[in-house]
Write a structure and sequence with these properties.
Number of domains: 3
Radius of gyration: 25 Å
Oligomer: single chain
Strand order of the largest sheet: 1-8-5-6
Strand content: 5-15%
Order of helices and strands: EEEHEEEEEHHEEHHEEHEHEHHHH
Shape: elongated
Structural class: alpha+beta
Largest sheet: 4 strands, antiparallel
Number of strands: 14
CATH class of the largest domain: Alpha Beta
CATH architecture of the largest domain: Alpha-Beta Complex
Length: 295
C-alpha cells in the first residue's frame, strides 16, 4: 500500500524543521517548542512533502507506540532521519484520509508491539527498523470508496470543538476557572492541548488541524494588541461583544479592573503619575496599550 521515502533535503528545498505531536500532527518545531531543535544544517534531513506520512518512534502517555501523521499544514518540511517516512503507492488501493483516521486509532498498535520486542525501548524511543515497520499488517476494507467514507466520517468527528488550555496557576487559567467556570471543573485536556505561553495558545487555536473547530481564551489586550491574528474570531457572550463600551458598563460579563495604588501620605511624583493616567493623553496611552480606559 505504501512505499518508503528516503528523499534527502540536499538542495535545501525546505528549511522548515518539523516535529510530530500526537495532537497537532506534523508541525513547525519553532511553533510547537518555541525554539528550534533541528541542527542548522538540514541538508541531511528527510524532505517531506504535503500528503506524505511520517512515523515518530518516540513514545509518550498519549502515544504509547509512537505516532503516525500526514503532512497537511505545509507544502513541505524537513524531518530527522530518526523518523520513518512513507507515501502511498499510486496503485496501492488505499485512501489517504482513511489512513489518517486509522493511525489515529490503536488498531495498528498490535503490529508495532509485535516487532518492538523486549528491551526495544530506549529512553522512550522504540527500536524499530524501517524494514520491520513496513512488514506490519493493517486491516482495511478492500473497497477504496468504503475507505473514503470511513475516513470522512471520522474526520467529521474530529471536527468537534477542541478546547485549548493554559497550564495550571497561569494568570489566564486562574481567571478562566474562577470567573468563567465559577467553581466548575474544566475537562482534562491531552497534554499537548496545554499551551505554556498565551501567544502560543492563540496561534494553536488559529491553526488547529487547519480547521475552524478550536476554541480557547485570552485577555482582551492580548488579542487586540500583543497577539493579533486574523484567523481568530472573538466570541460574543449572550450577544454582547467585548469592546471598550461594553467592558466599561459591565454588560460584557467577564471583566476585571486594574488599579493604580499609592501610599496614604501623598507623594508628589505619585500624584503626577495618577493625574497623568486619568488625563486625556494618559487615557489614550491606556487605550493604545490594549486596556480599556475609564473614560
Amino acid at each position: 500500500m505504501v512505499e518508503r521515502v528516503t528523499r534527502k533535503n540536499e538542495n535545501l528545498e525546505s528549511e522548515l524543521p518539523l516535529t510530530i505531536s500526537a495532537q497537532y500532527g506534523l508541525i513547525d518545531q519553532n511553533e510547537f517548542f518555541d525554539k528550534r531543535i533541528a541542527s542548522r544544517d538540514v541538508s541531511g534531513y528527510y524532505l517531506l512533502k504535503k500528503g506524505e506520512f511520517a512515523y515518530n518512534k518516540s513514545t509518550s502517555s498519549d502515544a504509547p507506540w509512537g505516532a503516525v501523521k500526514r503532512l497537511d499544514r505545509y507544502e513541505m518540511g524537513v524531518l530527522s532521519t530518526l523518523y520513518i517516512v512513507f507515501a502511498l503507492k499510486e496503485d496501492g488501493n488505499i485512501d489517504s484520509d482513511f489512513l489518517v483516521s486509522y493511525y489515529d486509532t490503536d488498531c495498528w498498535h498490535k503490529g508495532v508491539q509485535a516487532i518492538a520486542a523486549e528491551g526495544a525501548r530506549n529512553h522512550g524511543l522504540l527500536n524499530i527498523t524501517p524494514a520491520d515497520y513496513f512488514e506490519t499488517v493493517l486491516t482495511v476494507p478492500s473497497n477504496v470508496k468504503e475507505q473514503h467514507q470511513i475516513g470522512t466520517f471520522f474526520a467529521k468527528l474530529d471536527s468537534l470543538i477542541t478546547l485549548h488550555q493554559r497550564e495550571p496557576n497561569s494568570g489566564s487559567q486562574t481567571v478562566m476557572e474562577n470567573m468563567v467556570m465559577a467553581g466548575k471543573t474544566l475537562a482534562e485536556p491531552p497534554k499537548d492541548q496545554i499551551v505554556e505561553a498565551m501567544g502560543s495558545l492563540i496561534e494553536f487555536v488559529a491553526q488547529y488541524k487547519n480547521s475552524s473547530t478550536s476554541i480557547g481564551y485570552t485577555f482582551y489586550y492580548y488579542i487586540n494588541n500583543l497577539y493579533k491574528n486574523e484567523d481568530i474570531k472573538v466570541l460574543k457572550i449572550d450577544g454582547v461583544s467585548p469592546d471598550n463600551e461594553n467592558l466599561l458598563d459591565k454588560s460584557y460579563p467577564f471583566s476585571s479592573g486594574y488599579f493604580a495604588v499609592t501610599i496614604k501620605d501623598k507623594d508628589p511624583q505619585a500624584e503626577e503619575i495618577k493625574d497623568y493616567l486619568i488625563s486625556d493623553e494618559g487615557q489614550e496611552l491606556v487605550k493604545m496599550a490594549g486596556y480599556c480606559p475609564i473614560r
